[in-house]
Design brief:
- The chain is built from 9 helices and 8 strands.
- The protein is an alpha/beta fold.
- The protein has 2 domains: 155 residues, 3-Layer(aba) Sandwich (Rossmann fold), CATH 3.40.50.720; 76 residues, no CATH class.
- Strands 3-2-1-4-5-6-7-8 form an 8-stranded mixed β-sheet, sandwiched between helices.
- The chain starts with 6 loop residues before the first strand and ends with a helix.
- One of its GO terms (biological process) is tyrosine biosynthetic process.
Length: 241
């Protein structure tokens, strides 16, 4: 696999796909595959190359920037056109189910990495230095070179299993999304507030505009969220007397 100047095909040009394209553009050529009719206008003038059929995918690294709900269909669509010398990565917010799907649906000679960037467009707005990316290498050895690419972007790469990721993410990302959804209906911030309140509001703002698909994946697609949700409810009941 040629990594002096890798090429990337991003499947899905939504909010996170756009962020990935911008971040990775200095590292190599960017190709976009997304069948939505409006994508052609969105790609125009970016310097990225739009491809119209999965048979045109020749990139060394293919990133599935689609929601968990659409991952199966996307893998079934592009999988038959991929082969030796290519690496496929997902970026879903949970890891157990994407890991299973990629191993089941992709050709055996394709390398696979289950990946979760622990940030989104909002949290990356002021830069990505020091932000975390989780890797679960499933097949092949090229993941080390890709991890080096991400470290060159000043990202922190953590290696763990899908189960370990989902357990940790339930307590961090999942809990944050539950708290945000619970607090948002309380209305506008009060005129009198503390710094700790402002920091909480900043954290909520980072996830407040995530798509319904992202919220569903994080809070329903992670099997460890049921326990976290129950503990949160019990804790609220305890403090409410």
């Amino acid at each position: 696999m040629h990594f002096v100047s890798p090429s990337f095909t991003i499947i899905g040009f939504g909010a996170f796909g756009k962020l990935l394209a911008r971040l990775l553009a200095p590292m190599g050529s960017i190709f976009i595959y997304d069948r939505r009719p409006e994508v052609s206008a969105e790609v125009e003038g970016t310097g990225f190359q739009l491809i119209s059929h999965p048979g045109e995918i020749r990139s060394s690294i293919v990133i599935m920037a689609v929601p968990l709900q659409g991952l199966t269909d996307s893998l079934l669509e592009v999988g038959p056109h991929l082969g030796a010398g290519q690496v496929v990565m997902d970026v879903c917010s949970v890891k157990e189910e994407p890991a299973r799907l990629m191993q089941d649906l992709l050709p055996q000679d394709v390398e696979i990495i289950a990946c979760h960037p622990m940030f989104g467009p909002a949290s990356a707005a002021n830069g990505i230095a020091g932000l975390q990316v989780v890797f679960y290498p499933l097949r092949g050895r090229t993941w080390r070179r890709i991890a080096a690419i991400l470290r060159n972007l000043h990202l922190t790469v953590s290696i763990m299993t899908a189960e370990e990721h989902d357990r940790h993410a339930a307590l961090s990302q999942g809990l944050m999304h539950l708290i945000a959804r619970a607090i948002l209906p309380l209305g506008e911030p009060p005129a009198v507030r503390t710094r700790s309140h402002d920091l909480l509001c900043e954290a909520i703002e980072m996830v407040a505009h995530d798509s319904p698909e992202v919220f569903e994946t994080i809070t329903r697609g992670n099997r460890y969220m049921a326990e976290v949700r129950s503990k949160l409810i019990r804790s609220l009941e305890d403090v409410s007397g």
